[in-house]
UniProtKB/TrEMBL annotation:
<feature type="transmembrane region" description="Helical">
    <location>
        <begin position="20"/>
        <end position="40"/>
    </location>
</feature>
<dbReference type="InterPro" id="IPR035919">
    <property type="entry name" value="EAL_sf"/>
</dbReference>
<dbReference type="Pfam" id="PF00672">
    <property type="entry name" value="HAMP"/>
</dbReference>
<dbReference type="InterPro" id="IPR003660">
    <property type="entry name" value="HAMP_dom"/>
</dbReference>
<feature type="domain" description="HAMP">
    <location>
        <begin position="220"/>
        <end position="272"/>
    </location>
</feature>
<feature type="transmembrane region" description="Helical">
    <location>
        <begin position="198"/>
        <end position="217"/>
    </location>
</feature>
<dbReference type="InterPro" id="IPR043128">
    <property type="entry name" value="Rev_trsase/Diguanyl_cyclase"/>
</dbReference>
<dbReference type="InterPro" id="IPR001633">
    <property type="entry name" value="EAL_dom"/>
</dbReference>
<dbReference type="InterPro" id="IPR000160">
    <property type="entry name" value="GGDEF_dom"/>
</dbReference>
<dbReference type="InterPro" id="IPR050706">
    <property type="entry name" value="Cyclic-di-GMP_PDE-like"/>
</dbReference>
<dbReference type="InterPro" id="IPR024478">
    <property type="entry name" value="HlyB_4HB_MCP"/>
</dbReference>
<feature type="domain" description="EAL">
    <location>
        <begin position="451"/>
        <end position="704"/>
    </location>
</feature>
<keyword id="KW-1133">Transmembrane helix</keyword>
<dbReference type="Pfam" id="PF12729">
    <property type="entry name" value="4HB_MCP_1"/>
</dbReference>
<feature type="domain" description="GGDEF">
    <location>
        <begin position="302"/>
        <end position="443"/>
    </location>
</feature>
<dbReference type="Pfam" id="PF00563">
    <property type="entry name" value="EAL"/>
</dbReference>
<protein>
    <submittedName>
        <fullName>EAL domain-containing protein</fullName>
    </submittedName>
</protein>
Length: 706
C-alpha cells in the first residue's frame, strides 16, 4: 500500500514542492469557485422564478379572486333588482352588465395567459356556466319587467340559482387550482433550496477531504523530509559530518539535502585544516606546543624527560642568507630529528614537537625497568649523528647545530607545562654559558627566580633613588690634570646589600629596563653638572649608553630636554657607546648619533678594539673620543706586540682627529708606556678609584677652582 502511494506521488505529482503547493492551492481554489458559482447560479435561478411567481402566478391568483368577487357581486346585484322600483332598475341593470363584461374580460385574460391544460378546461367550463348564468338572469329580468313576481321567483329558483351555483362552483375550482399551483411552486423552490444546500455541503466535504489529502501529501513529501533535514543539520552542528542526507523525491528538499551534504564536507575539510593549523606547525608539519600539552594533559610524567632544542645561529642565517634559507634549515632539521627519534621508537617512547622559531621539543619516556638518563643519552647521540652532515640550502652548505636544554621529571613536577619551563631554564643557561647542552637544576631555578625578583627590585630602586652614581676621574697624561669623569652606576640593595653592575646591568639590558637606568644616570649627571656650573665648569661627565638606547629614536630629544631643563653646557656631557651597540644597526645608529652630536654632546667609543667595527664606518661616526679597552693595557710595558697594536690605534685615532684615552691603568709602568705611545689620557685605579659622596668631594677639593 505504501509503495503504491509512493508510486502515485512520484508518478502523478510534480517533484517540486512549489508546484505541488501551487497545484494544491489551485485545486482548493477551483472547488471554492465551483461552490460559489453553483450557489450564485442557484440563487439567481430561484430569484428569477420567485420574480416570475410574483409576476404571473400571484397575479393570476388575484385575478381569480377578483373573478370570484365579481361573481358574488353580480349575485348581490340580482337581489337588489328584486326590491328595486322601476326607476332604480336601470342602474342595477347597468351594474350587472358591467360585472358581466368584467367577468368576460377576466376569463379571456386568464385563458390567454394560461399554460395549464386543466386550468384552461376549467376556464372553458367557467365561461359556459357564466353564459348560462347570464341567460338565466336575463330571463329573470324579463319576468321582472313583465311584472310577474311569481314567474320571476320561479325563474330565479329554477334557472338563476342553479346557474349561479354552478358558476360559483367552477369559480371555486379555478381558485383552488390557482392556490395548488402556487403551493406547487413553493414546494419546488423549497426542494431547489434543499438540493442546493446538499450540493454545497457535498462540495465542501469534498474540499475538506481534498485538503486533508493534500495536507497528508504535503506532510509526507515536505514535512517529513524537512524533519530529516533538521536531524541532519543537528548532527552537523554536533560535529558528525559523516552522516549524509539521503536523496528524496522532492526537488527542493533534494537540493537542500545536497547543499547540507556539501556544507558538511566543506566544514569537515575546513575543520581538518583548522585542526592542522591549530595543532601542527605549518613549516615542518610537526605537532606544536598545543598538541603536545593536549596529548599529555592527563598522563603521568614519571620517568619522562623534556629536551628543548634550539637551532644555533639561526638568526645569523636569516640575516645573511635570507629567511628562505632559514626555513629550509628548519625543515631539514625537523626531518633529521624525526629520523633520530624513529630509530629509537621500538625501545623508547618519544614525542617530537615544533615550537616557535627554530625551537623543537622532544618528550621521551624510559621503558619499563630502564633509566631516563640513558634514554636521553641515546637520543642526544642519535640527534648529533643525524646533524653531523651539513644541510644543503640551495647553493649554501650550512652546519646544523642544536643547543639542548634538558629537564627530568621528578616528584615536584606537577604537569608538562612545568617540565617545559624547566627545560627552557636549562636551554637559557646553555646559551648564556655558550654550552651545547645543559641539564636543569634547582640552582638554575633559584637563579631564575632571583632574576625575576631582581627586576621588580630594580624598578623600585629607580623609583626610590636606591641607585648611586659613582664618578671615576679622567686624567690628561701630559700634565696629570683632571678634565672629567666617567659615571658608573652602583646599587645598594636595602636587603641584599651591594649588587654588582655585572649582575644587574646585563639583566636589565635583556629585559629592556636598561632605558630607565640610563635615564636615571643622565638625570643625575646633568644635575651634578648644574651644581658644578660655577665651581668646576671645565669638568665633564661621561654616561654609558646601552644598545637599547640606540634603538630609541626619541633618545636625543630626551637628552636635549634634560640639558634645557638644567641649563648646562652640552659640551660638558659625554655619552660612551660600545662598538657592538653601534654596529648592531649602523643604518639607524649613525643618524641618531648625529642628532646627539648636533646638540653639542661629546661622543666616545667605549671598549674600542673588542668589537667588529670597520674603518669605513669609523670615519662616518660623529665621535670625538676613542677609549682603548683594558685588555690592551694590562702589562702593556711587557708586551711589545701589544704596544705596536696600541700605537696603531692611537695614530689612527689622531688621524681621525679623535681624543684617545686608555682605561684600566693600574701601574706606573703602564702609564709611562702609554705616554711613550702618544696616548692622550688615562682612566683607572692608578689615577683614582670610582668616587662617591664625601670621597668625591674631598677629591674635588684638590682640583683648582675656576
Amino acid at each position: 500500500m505504501k509503495n503504491a502511494y509512493l508510486y502515485f506521488i512520484d508518478r502523478f505529482l510534480p517533484r517540486r514542492i512549489s508546484y505541488r503547493l501551487a497545484l494544491s492551492y489551485l485545486l482548493i481554489l477551483c472547488l471554492f469557485v465551483i461552490v460559489v458559482v453553483r450557489s450564485v447560479t442557484q440563487v439567481q435561478d430561484i430569484s428569477r422564478r420567485s420574480q416570475e411567481f410574483a409576476r404571473n402566478d400571484l397575479q393570476k391568483l388575484l385575478q381569480v379572486q377578483n373573478l370570484a368577487l365579481d361573481i358574488e357581486g353580480s349575485t348581490s346585484a340580482l337581489v337588489l333588482i328584486f326590491n328595486a322600483t322601476q326607476d332604480k332598475r336601470k342602474p342595477a341593470y347597468d351594474a350587472v352588465d358591467a360585472k358581466k363584461k368584467h367577468i368576460d374580460q377576466l376569463i379571456q385574460k386568464l385563458g390567454a395567459e394560461s399554460d395549464d391544460e386543466v386550468q384552461t378546461l376549467c376556464l372553458q367550463r367557467l365561461d359556459v356556466t357564466h353564459q348560462e348564468f347570464r341567460q338565466s338572469y336575463l330571463n329573470l329580468f324579463d319576468e321582472i319587467e313583465l311584472d310577474n313576481p311569481d314567474g320571476a321567483k320561479r325563474v330565479f329558483e329554477t334557472q338563476v340559482a342553479p346557474a349561479r351555483q354552478a358558476f360559483l362552483t367552477e369559480s371555486g375550482i379555478l381558485l383552488d387550482l390557482a392556490k395548488k399551483r402556487i403551493q406547487q411552486r413553493q414546494d419546488e423552490e423549497q426542494s431547489d433550496l434543499a438540493r442546493l444546500k446538499l450540493q454545497v455541503i457535498a462540495v465542501s466535504i469534498f474540499a475538506v477531504l481534498c485538503g486533508i489529502g493534500l495536507a497528508f501529501i504535503t506532510q509526507s513529501s515536505v514535512v517529513q523530509p524537512l524533519t530529516m533535514l533538521e536531524k541532519s543539520a543537528l548532527q552537523i552542528a554536533a560535529g558528525n559530518y559523516t552522516s549524509k542526507v539521503p536523496p528524496t523525491r522532492t526537488t527542493e528538499v533534494a537540493q537542500v539535502g545536497r547543499a547540507l551534504n556539501t556544507m558538511a564536507d566543506a566544514i569537515a575539510l575546513r575543520e581538518a585544516e583548522i585542526e592542522q593549523l591549530a595543532y601542527y606547525d605549518p613549516l615542518s608539519n610537526l605537532p606544536n606546543r598545543i598538541l603536545l600539552l593536549k596529548t599529555f594533559e592527563q598522563q603521568s610524567l614519571h620517568e619522562h624527560a623534556m629536551l628543548l632544542m634550539d637551532i644555533a645561529r639561526l638568526k645569523i642565517v636569516n640575516e645573511t642568507l635570507g629567511f628562505g634559507t632559514g626555513d629550509t634549515l628548519i625543515v631539514e632539521v625537523s626531518q633529521r630529528l624525526k629520523l633520530a627519534t624513529e630509530a629509537l621508537a621500538q625501545n623508547h617512547h618519544a614525542f617530537l614537537a615544533k615550537f616557535s622559531g627554530g625551537q623543537f621539543a622532544l618528550l621521551c619516556a624510559a621503558p619499563d625497568g630502564g633509566l631516563i638518563k640513558d634514554v636521553v643519552a641515546d637520543l642526544l647521540n642519535n640527534i648529533n649523528h643525524q646533524l653531523s652532515t651539513p644541510v644543503q640550502c640551495g647553493n649554501h652548505s650550512v652546519d646544523a647545530n642544536l643547543v639542548f636544554g634538558i629537564a627530568l621529571a621528578n616528584n615536584e613536577t606537577r604537569d608538562l607545562t612545568g617540565l617545559i619551563r624547566n627545560a627552557e631554564v636549562a636551554l637559557y643557561a646553555a646559551k648564556e654559558n655558550t654550552l651545547m647542552s645543559a641539564w636543569y637544576s634547582d640552582a638554575q631555578e633559584a637563579s631564575r627566580l632571583g632574576h625575576l625578583s631582581l627586576l621588580s627590585d630594580l624598578r623600585s630602586a629607580v623609583q626610590n633613588n636606591e641607585l648611586q652614581m659613582w664618578l671615576q676621574p679622567k686624567i690628561h697624561l701630559s700634565d696629570l690634570s683632571c678634565y672629567g669623569f666617567e659615571a658608573l652606576v652602583r646599587w645598594q640593595h636595602p636587603q641584599r646589600g651591594f649588587i654588582s653592575p655585572a649582575e644587574f646591568v646585563p639583566f636589565a639590558e635583556r629585559t629592556g629596563y636598561i632605558n630607565r637606568v640610563t635615564d636615571w644616570m643622565l638625570k643625575q649627571a646633568v644635575q651634578t653638572l648644574a651644581s658644578w656650573r660655577d665651581s668646576y665648569p671645565q669638568l665633564s661627565i661621561a654616561v654609558n649608553v646601552s644598545t637599547n638606547d640606540l634603538r630609541d629614536q626619541h633618545f636625543p630629544e630626551r637628552v636635549r630636554q634634560l640639558i634645557d631643563q638644567y641649563q648646562v653646557n652640552p659640551a660638558n656631557l659625554q655619552l660612551e657607546l660600545t662598538e657592538s651597540g653601534i654596529m648592531e644597526n649602523p643604518g639607524n645608529a649613525i643618524p641618531l648619533l648625529q642628532a646627539l652630536r648636533s646638540i653639542g654632546i661629546g661622543l666616545s667609543i667605549d671598549d674600542f678594539g673588542t668589537g667588529h667595527s670597520s674603518l669605513a664606518y669609523l670615519q662616518k661616526l660623529p665621535v670625538s673620543e676613542l677609549k682603548i679597552d683594558r685588555s690592551f693595557v694590562i702589562n702593556i710595558d711587557q708586551h711589545p706586540s701589544t704596544q705596536k697594536l696600541v700605537k696603531t690605534i692611537v695614530e689612527m685615532g689622531h688621524g681621525l682627529n679623535l681624543h684617545v684615552i686608555a682605561e684600566g691603568i693600574e701601574t706606573l709602568a703602564e702609564r709611562e708606556a702609554l705616554v711613550a705611545l702618544g696616548c692622550d689620557s688615562m682612566q683607572g685605579y692608578f689615577a683614582s678609584k670610582p668616587l662617591h659622596g664625601d670621597a668625591l668631594q674631598n677629591w674635588l677639593n684638590t682640583l683648582p677652582k675656576a
